Amino acid sequence: QVRLAESGGGLVQAGGSLRLSCAASGSGFSITAMGWYRQAPRKQRDLVALISDGGSTNYADSVKGRFTISKDNAKNTVYLQMNSLNPGDTAVYYCRLDGRTTFGDSMFSWGEGTLVTVSS
Question: For 26-41, what is each residue's pLDDT tens digit?
Answer without folding.
Answer: 999 999 999 999 999 9
